[in-house]
Amino acid sequence: MSTLLEVSGVSVSFDGFKAINNLSFQIADAELRAVIGPNGAGKTTFMDIITGKTKPDEGRVVYGDRGDSLLKMSESKIAQAGVGRKFQRPTVFEDQSVFDNLMMALKKTRGPLAVLFFKPSSEDEDKVAKLAAEIGLSGALHRKSGELSHGQKQWLEIGMLLAQDPRLLLVDEPAAGMTPAEREHTTDILREAAKTRAVVVVEHDMEFVRRLNCKVTVLHEGSVLAEGSLDHVTKNEQVIEVYLGR
Amino acid sequence: MSDVALGSARRPFALRFPSVLVFLAILSIFTVVVTVLSEGFGVGVISTSFVKTLGKTLCLCLVALAMDLVWGYCGILSLGHMAFFGLGGYAIGMWLMYARTEIIVLESLAAAELPPTPEEVSDGIATQIFGVVGASEFPPIWAFAHSLPLQLAAVVVVPGLLALVFGWLAFRSRVTGVYLSILTQAMTLALSLHLFQNDSGLRGNNGLSGLQNLPGLSDVPQSIVSMWFFWASALALGLGYILCAWVVSGKFGSVIRAIRDDEARVRFLGYPVEAFKLVIFTLTAVIAGIAGALYYPQAGIVNPAEIAPIASIYLAVWVAIGGRGRLYGAVIGAAFVSLLSTWFTGGQAPDINLGFYTIQWVDWWIVILGLSFVAVTLFAPKGIGGLVDVFIDRKSPDRHGADLGPDQGALREQEAEK
Predict the structure, then answer these.
(1) B325-340 b/e with 16+ CB inside 10 Å = b?
(2) Quick check: B251 contacting A, CB < 8 Å?
(3) Which residue range or ranges hold the ABC transporter domain (chain A) (predicted)?
(4) Please, which residues 36-95 of chain A have a Cβ atom closer than 8 Å to chain B?
(5) Number of domains comprising chain B
(6) What is the pLDDT of residues A137-171, one digit of tens each?
(7) pTM (predicted TM-score)
(8) What is the ipTM of this complex?
């Protein structure tokens, strides 16, 4: 297993407030990782940096086989390079059908001219249908996604991520607003996805993290506090203090 | 997979978008009816000047389509598209004026004993055209005015290039929403102020005139010429409608509507948002340029006042009143409001005498227009195009007032389709 993403010595501050402080993080090609931490630990900023939304003040973010720096790339270039992101709040294109949402996400050339002359093949449509089945939205393919329930939107967004076929998947609180049964299904999908790609899951819910059964990184005040199995980190004195103490 | 194939993009375009066929049918019927009733080719019920009004209206519908594409579908509230429209008019106007003046100058010089040199001809034309601004030489931008093909190319290239450069600068700096609108308006204002100057090379506030006279066709009466332009305008509107419908129908349409509703999310899908905006901005500027090139020969004159920011604001008002985000809405809005505006400001509307005050529509029309714009925005965001929903059973979703995306240009609840 080779390293897919390496974040080293990254710091970023907003108006003097250090959101990320000398953070270093690594993830391998096919690995599932949970990132936990209290509010304000810098989890979202961490994802913003990887996806190019926020440029750090210092540090390096190196990605892929050739070791490209993500800091020089635009958001869309980073996404094209295979970094997919799921937001905390489900963000799908509400005015468009489930089918259109998935078709837009499907891994294809992204340039304007290629898109203008794009005609979906029957394979593309089959792929979309298969994804829809996987996320339980087969019956809703031609419904506007704005009509879906909160949970269904979460699913649609997960489906869009899978359609993008990213090498690195960043997932922000996937289980929020889901029923226990849906959570279980989400866990399965994430673990399945992590067999062929790197998956980073940011989560609050310890029970959900336990079910993921993977290595855990604890963030606190913008840097890594502890790393290891869930049992290992929950025994860590500092982690206990941050989460339970004060 | 029959369920998937239902909305498949692989079915014929016309079947998936019946509104295109309906529109083209209505446009064809309208064209035939006007032809039959015209002075030039029919029974003469419709006067030549009204044929010109109708032809100009078709051009305004075309530029409104462009506005709907850029604003209604891509969420960019451009307040500069009438500048591209005006530039198209200037581009064709330069050739019309040059070629016609050349004929006049050659005729007057033909009486001379020695055949005139090219310099004499050129000076003669320049004096005729620029005498009004106290100049007698051709400015550099008239270098191609002698050539119809080159000036026709300019109709497309000049607005397209300006939009490309302006859009590239604005979009790559991530200027969006109100700030972009202000920027486009500043561009329009700067362009119009520049053209107002006598040394702009385009005759200052006189503009270009006599454009209704086609060079070399002075024997053809205006009743015939007006019909030629009417047909050309109808054809351009039909083709423009098909083009716009095609652009918004497929995945490209999906992406630009997604940009309208949630631009940041589209970036994270890997689409280069700026490039898409630039394509749409430039494409619509070109459409606007072509519409302008057909409009001004029917109007007869193009001057810098036509490019003033207010014209572009009117354009946005037409699209809003007609119904944003549906192509036929833009056409309905432009046709309805501009014809009504012609009626009110043309002095045909009877004044209303209230005893203590006489309402003169020439002054009050603008107030009515402003109020209806506010009313439509507040109470009927679907606009006039929304009336169609009553017949085709199209409903808006119930979202408790939430827009369809976080961005400023995002579709509003009532504008959306369930």
Answers:
(1) bbbbbbbbbbbbbbee
(2) yes
(3) 5-246
(4) 51, 53, 74-77, 79-80, 84-85, 87, 91, 93-95
(5) 1
(6) 999 999 999 989 888 888 899 899 999 999 999 99
(7) 0.92
(8) 0.89
